[in-house]
Design brief:
Helices cover 35% and strands 21% of the residues. It is an alpha+beta fold. It has a single domain, classed as L-fuculose-1-phosphate Aldolase (3-Layer(aba) Sandwich), CATH 3.40.225. The strands form two sheets. Strands 4-3-2-1-5-10-9-8 form an eight-stranded mixed β-sheet, sandwiched between helices. A two-stranded antiparallel ribbon has the order 6-7. A hairpin with a 5-residue loop joins strand 3 and strand 4. The N and C termini lie far apart (48 Å).
Length: 195
């Protein structure tokens, strides 16, 4: 049986293999009884190992591990405090999410895409849904406030000019949300080339 740690490491490795963690970017976490497991700052996600994960409490304080949590670890903590149904946060940096979040700072509308059904609560491609975009800030308290103001965001959100924060009630659902969001954003970006 796969442990939480191994499942998180597999999700990180998978995201890195997609090219979604350039220049050691991105951070990844999963809720635990003590708080959450999170990637240490500056680690190469293509070579992720167990000792690259830290244990933090829900206040963001490191309890175990070698290294330091990234500043964005505080946003993970804020998400876990905000919504007890969140059990995983996967944050990546992709071209589509970076470009489109700058182009559509009020949110990215999606309609007619079959892949919308991969996002929890969606049962038809006919619905129009919006991927939320929040303003970027280097101040994690300010960024967390932007997220709180836009909540609920059941699949996650984009940070303008930054990337995707996918959330889920399990690592598997979070992976599905991340993959679906990235696929949908790539479709929108491709369509924009033809309009």
């Amino acid at each position: 049986m796969m442990t939480l740690q191994n499942e998180l490491l597999a999700a990180i490795s998978w995201a890195a293999q997609q090219g979604w963690t350039p220049a050691t970017g991105g951070n990844f976490s999963a809720r635990t009884e003590a708080g959450y497991l999170v990637t240490a700052s500056g680690r190469d996600k293509t070579r992720i190992q167990a000792d690259d994960l830290l244990v933090c409490n829900l206040g963001g304080k490191m309890l175990e591990g070698n290294g330091t949590p990234s500043a964005e670890s505080d946003l993970h903590a804020a998400l876990y405090r905000l919504d007890p149904t969140i059990h995983c946060v996967l944050h990546t940096h992709t071209v589509a999410s970076t470009v489109l979040s700058r182009r559509f700072p009020q949110g990215i509308k999606l309609s007619g895409f079959e892949m919308q059904k991969a996002l929890a609560g969606n049962v038809t491609h006919d619905a129009t849904i919006t991927l939320p975009v929040v303003p970027n800030s280097q101040d994690m308290q300010e960024l967390a406030e932007h997220v709180r103001n836009g909540w609920p965001m059941p699949w996650g959100f984009l940070v303008s000019g930054h990337g995707i924060y996918a959330v889920g009630d399990s690592i598997a659902s979070c992976r599905r949300h991340l993959e679906a969001i990235e696929f949908l954003l790539t479709c929108v970006l491709e369509e924009s080339r033809w309009s």
